[in-house]
Amino acid sequence: MTRFAIGVDLGGTNLRIAAVDSNGKLLEKTTTSTAVSRGRNLVIDEMCAVIQQTVTKFRSGGELAGIGIGVPGIIEMQTGMVRESPNLPDWRDYPVRDEIERRLRTTVVLENDANAAALGEKWLGAAAAVNDMCMLTLGTGVGGGIVLNGSVWHGMTGMAGELGHINVDPNGPACNCSSRGCLEQLASATAIKRMAVEAIATGKAPELARAMHEDPEFSSKVVHQMATQGDEPAKEIFRRVGDALGVALADLVNIFNLPMYVVGGGVASAWDAFAPAMMERVRKNSFVYRATAPTENAPGVQGSNVPDEALPARRTTIITRALLGSDAGLVGAARLPMIAGKITSPKAELKRA
Ligand SMILES: [Zn+2]
After folding, report:
1. b vs e for 158-183, b when ≥16 Cβ sit within 10 Å of the residue's Cβ?
2. Could you read off the pLDDT of 36-71 as tens digits, one per residue?
3. What is the distance in A from the centroid of ligand 1 to the CA of 261?
4. How far is the CA of 176 from the centre of ligand 1 (A)?
5. pTM score, two decimals?
């Protein structure tokens, strides 16, 4: 009998739920109409109802391993609580894991949504061929996840991997975390829009100004379209994004010497616009990268999934695009209960003691 698990993504606008079997086959994906912003109780009610329907549907075909939930915020693994989440203010210090375990009578694992995305890309995406990887998720903010030996690296309490707050420019724009010039302030969708507004204010970006005037939904996507069409101020914004990513990635390469670094999230669709500046900066700043850089046109350099046998004999550092899009967090969340026994969490240690 196969096993399956339920993955939940609270990271987006709407609640998303998927059933995935232990071979990584996506059995079902549901996007509910429940806006995550409508409050904790409503979201938990809806989540439990959809999970129950889904479990009933697939129970005859396999055994339920449990439920994994990706949450946009800082998770405390020991208590299964959300310690801090700007998007989910009323979830703070609420016993999410215990409450859902009580209602559904199965194992529930909470995880930061960027960690879940990293685990998804490691399991079924760009990093399927390696055991160790880290991922940057470029969205409204910048998330990060570190996967070592196939499991998320949690640090002491579950808060490790906040790669969006790597300092890139100590005198840069103020960040919500109270630091300045964090990667998130220089490489997120929010940052791209802000840089476009700043460029327009100088009077030297007439095309961007026209686009913003014409489009009430003016966003990083529009800036990317204009960069693709050759608008120089828009191209310059993506060069700055790439440079900031390169500074952070060079540090990560120097610290970890991992075989793979994956860049995902909505902004990663602008890969062609920022990757040249990013790779130039990584090469300049990281001697570990230079010592392990793939040769030109080596497999996997630009976004393909590299099977083990195709990896060159000389182990190389690969920096590449994510493959799973917005499903990374969902399948990664489903992976959590499947490998829960492998995770050395403070809770597991307490249970063993
Ligand atoms: Zn910060």
Report:
1. bebbbbbbbbbeeebeebeeeeebbb
2. 778 899 999 999 999 999 999 998 888 999 999 999
3. 21
4. 6
5. 0.90
